[in-house]
Backbone:
């Protein structure tokens, strides 16, 4: 058997950098620490585990509410068209226009599906990053404008809401 | 081929809303024998059980797309002559070309109106 003669290990890198290996390792460690801090700043745990799923839930709610709204609009337009002698009058023309306009729902649904797929991919990848050793979500530092937004703006409809029923509000005002 | 108001028409779409819209527009055009399928597979099953005078199908469905359905219809000797209109949000030229090459009789881009639907049907059945 022919033995392959291996060159002696070179303590300097191939590019001719004459820094010793210990210096390279220290530099690498520093880079890794910096990288972990940057990745931690993205808060992959919170982003992938909480915020993106919340955004997905909002998209699902948009689709449900749009389905419901369009279904009710269609039911009314169909009822107008079903009226005997609706004929070809103005009401008929407008009812057809309503039907045609409801086509937006399909397109919105398809676009939302694309957005949801992108968010799903991002969520999966962030969860992978969050699972990597040494990556810890950084403490989030809220800016003044972010705090103002959080404290003062109405956050909009609750998922599976409303949180407080009108009947409960009415009871409070009795 | 003349349009027969009593011919059965199969509308295929995974969005119930679109089926309702197309059905309502078809009724306004005088067609009452309307059926629906929520997927390509369901449509193919219905087509094999009963002859239809026209299929109006969406492209974007899973797992069997409208394009797959079209190819299956054209590849089946018993169904191959069924008029087929693709009605979809896919408006890239290559999609239109692919549908035409696969044997689609016409192609409607969403959103569309009653006049467009009537016009495309007229290219198959003549004025009605």
Residues:
């Amino acid at each position: 058997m022919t033995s392959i003669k291996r060159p002696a290990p070179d303590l300097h890198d191939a590019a001719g950098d004459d820094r010793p290996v210990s210096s390279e390792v220290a530099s690498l460690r520093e880079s890794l620490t910096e990288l972990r801090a940057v990745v931690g700043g993205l808060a992959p745990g919170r982003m992938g585990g909480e915020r993106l799923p919340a955004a997905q839930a909002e998209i699902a709610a948009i689709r449900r509410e749009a389905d419901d709204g369009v279904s009710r609009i269609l039911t009314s337009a169909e009822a107008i068209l079903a009226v005997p002698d609706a004929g070809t009058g103005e009401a008929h023309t407008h009812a057809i226009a309503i039907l045609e306009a409801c086509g937006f729902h399909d397109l919105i649904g398809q676009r939302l599906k694309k957005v949801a797929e992108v968010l799903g991919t991002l969520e999966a990848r962030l969860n992978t990053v969050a699972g990597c050793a040494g990556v810890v979500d950084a403490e989030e530092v809220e800016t003044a404008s972010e705090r103002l937004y959080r404290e003062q703006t109405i956050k909009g409809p609750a998922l599976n809401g409303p949180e407080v029923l009108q009947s409960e509000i009415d009871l409070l005002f009795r | 081929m003349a349009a027969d108001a009593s011919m059965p028409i199969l509308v295929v779409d995974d969005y119930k809303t679109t089926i309702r819209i197309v059905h309502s527009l078809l009724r306004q055009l005088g067609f009452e024998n309307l059926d629906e399928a929520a997927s390509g597979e369901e449509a193919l099953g219905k087509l094999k059980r009963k002859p239809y005078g026209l299929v109006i199908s969406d492209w974007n469905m899973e797992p069997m797309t409208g394009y797959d359905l079209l190819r299956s219809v054209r590849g089946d000797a018993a169904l191959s002559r069924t008029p087929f209109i693709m009605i979809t949000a896919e408006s890239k030229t290559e999609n239109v070309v692919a549908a035409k090459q696969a044997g689609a009789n016409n192609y409607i881009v969403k959103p569309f109106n009653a006049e467009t639907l009537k016009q495309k049907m007229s290219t198959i059945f003549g004025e009605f």
Observations:
- Strands of chain B lie at 9-12, 34-37, 54-57, 84-88, 106-109.
- The CA atoms of residues 74 and 80 of chain B lie 4 Å apart.
- The interface with chain A takes residues 13, 15-18, 20-21, 24-25, 27-28, 60, 89, 110-114 of chain B (CB under 8 Å).
- The mean pLDDT of chain B is 94.
